[in-house]
Design a protein that fits this description.
This protein has 160 residues and is α+β, with helices and mostly antiparallel strands. The chain has one domain: Alpha-Beta Plaits. Helices cover 37% and strands 24% of the residues. The protein is built from five helices and six strands; from the N terminus they run βαβαβαββαβα. Strands 3, 4, 5 and 6 form a four-stranded mixed β-sheet that branches. Strand 4 and strand 5 form a beta hairpin. The longest helix is centred in the C-terminal third of the chain and has 20 residues. It is elongated, with a radius of gyration of 19 Å.
Length: 160
């Protein structure tokens, strides 16, 4: 990841370009941030990233093999919900963020095109919602989901 980012994510009230971006469209220094400081937690950027990545057609799921296995078991428990941040890792600095994603793509899609779409959607969502500059989005394609895989998993279940 980039050496130019450090923790925690904050916006200062000094009139830099990044803080102007977070102060609002006018950037006059009279906006809400001129009277305080805004901190954006890593978990916020992770959730935005997870949602944006899942919106892209061709993405089956997020997470590497072991994370998906444990996550799927947890999701099947009563009250269990899929984790939006599974397969997402971020590093957030004062003005920048870097993202790592582990994804599973659907069989038949062009992986390079899906990766480009994910990268574009993630950058757009994170920058629009947080005002942080996304300096990189690294995508690891860990698996290809075949159409018949879910049917096999459902019939092989030993526990009900």
């Amino acid at each position: 990841m980039s050496d130019t980012i450090s923790r925690p994510a904050t916006t200062e009230s000094k009139p830099s370009d990044a803080s102007k971006k977070l102060q609002g469209r006018g950037g006059s220094g009279d906006g809400p941030d001129a009277h305080g400081r805004t901190t954006i937690a890593d978990s916020v950027v992770e959730k935005i990233t997870g949602m944006a990545a899942r919106e892209v057609p061709g993405i089956h799921s997020l997470g590497s093999g072991m994370a998906r296995t444990f996550g799927a078991a947890r999701d099947r428990m009563p009250g269990g919900r899929p984790s939006v941040t599974r397969g997402v890792s971020v590093e957030v600095g004062e003005r920048q963020a870097a993202v790592d994603l582990d994804v599973v793509v659907e069989y038949g899609v062009t992986i390079a095109d899906v990766a480009l779409d994910v990268r574009t959607n993630v950058i757009s969502a994170v920058e629009r919602m947080t005002g942080l500059e996304v300096v990189e989005v690294n995508i690891a394609v860990d698996d290809v989901h075949l159409p018949d895989e879910e049917e096999e998993q459902e019939t092989e279940s030993r526990v009900k």
